[in-house]
């Protein structure tokens, strides 16, 4: 199914449809797919949930049944307890009522997927969160031709143009080498960002042990179990202060200025996030080394994706909806904002 989804032209408009996608019902807490009697990424418990990925603003516990990739289900099991899960692999399709449902890679975090819905001659792609640049921890985004494309807009302003990933990692390594008596303490979200920073360091040849906060252990182990090369990770709790000098230490963002960090050797505080482009945010968090590293598409990636896919309509959610809708309208591309509930800071 994967190749077919990527190469098919936009599907023909059915004459019985009054409006594109009128079989989808956007609500503040999710998108209801009426002919499948299922919800996409509902933030409240529902009987049937189609989940794009494991971040808390898209996945939660308490659903009657969950359809997601095997990796996303494993993440949900780890975070919320065992789910009534139905795994759907990339390229696989299932039938729910009259709707054919498929999952293709979104390039956001491990197991992240776009949900492809085919119903009566229309195709809608709900992309969830996505990015277009390479990431050693997850399968790259796959563009899918469609009639309606539902896109995020977390960084949908022209000011957000993420720098080269390798350059940001090189900044981290250079600061580490320049301060052998100190450590570099990197704040990174526990799901996706922490593992990506570690994997990117390995890609740049940093093979030394990396020390991690206990809150990162479970998901790092999960990533390693799914074949992501993270190298030697050591718990901070078992280390002496002197042992960590000259090393990278990883922690959740909330631990950067916590009492926990006092056990570290004069840490240089860093944070990996697309929001580090905004200097005020770095200052507010007392970040000495901002690392602009995002798991979301930046402005160019968003607009290039819409140009490439060229859907008949664009539905925009989670972020700067107005700016992206305006960009679409300037190019005679029909667009509207969905105003779904989201927690954009948590996963970046």
UniProtKB/TrEMBL annotation:
Sorted UniProt keywords: Exonuclease, Hydrolase, Ligase, Nuclease
Originating organism: Sphingomonas insulae
Full protein name: Ligase-associated DNA damage response exonuclease
NCBIfam families found in the cross-reference section: Xnuc_lig_assoc (TIGR04122)
InterPro entries for this protein: MBL, Metallo-B-lactamas, RibonucZ/Hydroxyglut_hydro, Xnuc_lig_assoc
Domain Metallo-beta-lactamase: 27-189
Record-level Gene Ontology MF annotations: exonuclease activity; ligase activity
């Amino acid at each position: 199914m994967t190749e077919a989804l990527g190469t098919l032209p936009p599907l023909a408009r059915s004459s019985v449809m009054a409006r594109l996608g009128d079989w989808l019902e956007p609500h503040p807490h999710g998108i209801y797919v009426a002919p499948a009697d299922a919800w996409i990424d509902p933030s409240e418990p529902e009987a049937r949930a189609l989940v794009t990925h494991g971040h808390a603003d898209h996945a939660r516990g308490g659903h009657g049944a969950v359809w997601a990739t095997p990796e996303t289900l494993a993440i949900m099991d780890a975070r919320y307890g065992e789910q009534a899960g139905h795994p759907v692999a990339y390229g696989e399709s299932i039938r729910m009522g009259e709707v054919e449902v498929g999952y293709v890679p979104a390039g956001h975090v491990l197991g992240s997927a776009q949900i492809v819905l085919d119903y009566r001659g229309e195709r809608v792609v709900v992309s969830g969160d996505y990015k277009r640049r390479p990431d050693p921890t997850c399968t790259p985004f796959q563009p899918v031709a469609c009639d309606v494309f539902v896109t995020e807009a977390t960084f949908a302003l022209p000011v957000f143009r993420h720098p080269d990933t390798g350059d940001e990692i090189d900044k981290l390594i250079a600061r580490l080498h320049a301060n052998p008596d100190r450590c570099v303490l990197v704040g990174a979200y526990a799901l996706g960002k922490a593992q990506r920073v570690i994997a990117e360091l390995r890609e740049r040849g940093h093979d030394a042990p990396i020390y991690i906060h206990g809150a990162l252990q479970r998901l790092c182990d999960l990533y390693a179990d799914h074949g992501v090369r993270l190298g030697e990770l050591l718990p901070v709790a078992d280390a002496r202060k002197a042992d960590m000098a000259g090393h990278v230490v990883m922690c959740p963002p909330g631990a950067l200025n916590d009492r926990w960090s006092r056990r570290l050797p004069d840490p240089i505080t860093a944070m990996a996030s697309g929001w580090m482009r905004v200097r005020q945010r770095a200052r507010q968090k007392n970040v000495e080394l901002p690392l602009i590293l995002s798991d979301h598409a930046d402005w160019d990636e968003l607009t290039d994706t819409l140009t490439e896919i060229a859907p008949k309509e664009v539905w925009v959610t989670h972020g700067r909806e107005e700016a992206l809708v305006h960009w679409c309208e300037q190019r005679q591309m029909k667009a509207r904002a969905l105003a779904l509930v989201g927690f954009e800071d948590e996963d970046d």
